[in-house]
Amino acid sequence: MGDPELVAIEHTARKTLEEGALDLGLQPLWLAPSTGAALDEAALLAHASQGWSAAFELQRAEHGIEVRLIAVAPKQSLLRVRRETATQDNLEVVLLRLLRDVARPTASLDGQCGCQTNSQDGADSDLGQPAPRDLDGRAYLAVTGAMVGGYTGYALEHIAGSGNPRIIYPLMTVGAGVGVAASLVAADEWHVSMGEAWYLSAATLWSTASALLISDGVKLSDPSHRHAYGLLGTATGLSLGTLAVATSDIGQGSALVTQSGAIFGGLLGGVGERLVNTDLTKPPTLGLGLGLGIGALGAGFAATRLPSPDPSRVVYIDLAAFLGALTGAAVASPAIVGRTVTQTETRLWLGSVLLGTLIGGGLGYAITSDDSEHDPRDQRSATKPLPYNLQLAVAPIQPLATRGPAPWTWGVQGTW
Question: Which of 72, 131, 146, 287 could share a disulfide with 269, CB 3.0–4.6 Å?
Fold first, then answer.
C-alpha cells in the first residue's frame, strides 16, 4: 500500500497547481493523474496540442519531500522539468515557484541548451536543474531595502515635526534594519535575480526622488508635507515594480532601460523647464521631478513589454546620448559667453543640449542595431508590445477602372 500521508499531500499539491495555473494564465492545463506508475511522456506531449500539460511526482527525501514537476508548453515537444526539496510547511510555495519557473520563456527552456527532448526508456528526462540565474540579487536588494527603510524612518519623524535628533537616528536605524530583513526574506523566497533587483530599485528610488522634487517645485504651503509625498512616491514605485517583476521576465537589460529612462527623463524634464523659465540660478526641480517620474514609468512599462536587450548595448546607447549632450553644449557654448546672456541665447544653448542628446541616443541605437541582430542573447521570447499583435499597415490601392499612379492607404492590422 502507498503512504497515506503522501497521498493526502498529493491531493493538496494537485489543488495548489490547478489554482496556480489559473493565476499564471496557464490555461487550459491538463494535469496528469497521480497513478504511481512511470511518467507517460507520450500523454504529456499529446495533450500539449490542446494547451499546457503537466505532471508532478512527490517522494520522501531525507530532509522533507522531493517535488518533481514536468510541463510541456502548448504545441511544443520539449519537456520542462524542475525539482526541489520541500517541507510540508512550504510545499505550496515551492510548487508555485516551480510552476512559475517552467512557465518562464528562458533560453534554456526553449531548446537552446542542447538537451534531448524525450527519453525512450522511461528514464529521468530532466532537461537540467533550474536554469541558473544571471546573478543573485539579494545584496543589491538589501541595499535598496536599507535606503528605503532608512528614508521611511527619517520621513516619519519629519512628518511628525519633532525635529529631535535623538529620535531621528534610532528611527532611521530601525527602518533600515526592517528594510534589509524584508528584502532578504523576499529575495530568498522568490529567488530575485540581479536584473529584478535593479528594476525594483529603479522603480522605488526614482519614484521617491520624483515625488520629492515635484513637491519642492510646486512650493507646498507646509514644507513638512514634502516627505509625505515622498513616502507616497516610494509606495507607488515599490508597488508597480513588484507587480511588474511578478508578472514579467525582467533581465539586466530591461532594468538598465528603466534606470536610463529615469535619468534621461529627468535631464529632458529639467532642460524643458529651463526652456520655459531661463533663470539658471535656481534648480529646475519641477521639471526634474516630472521627467524622472515619467521617464521611469514609461521605460519601466516598455521593459515589461519588449524583449530584454543586451546590457552592453544599453550602456553604449546611454554613452552616445551623453556624448551627444556634451557635443550640443559645446557647439552652442559661444552663445552663452559674454558679460550678458539673453533669454534667447540661453534657450538656444539648452535646445542644442536637448537636440544633441536625442541625436546621440538615436545614433547609438542605430550603430548597435547590427550587433544585436546577430547576438543570440537577444533572440528571446517576449510578449508583444501591443495586444492582438497590432501594427501599422501601409499598402497601395490598385484601382480597377482607372490608370495612373496607385494611391496609398494606411491603417492598423492585427490578429483577433
Answer: 287
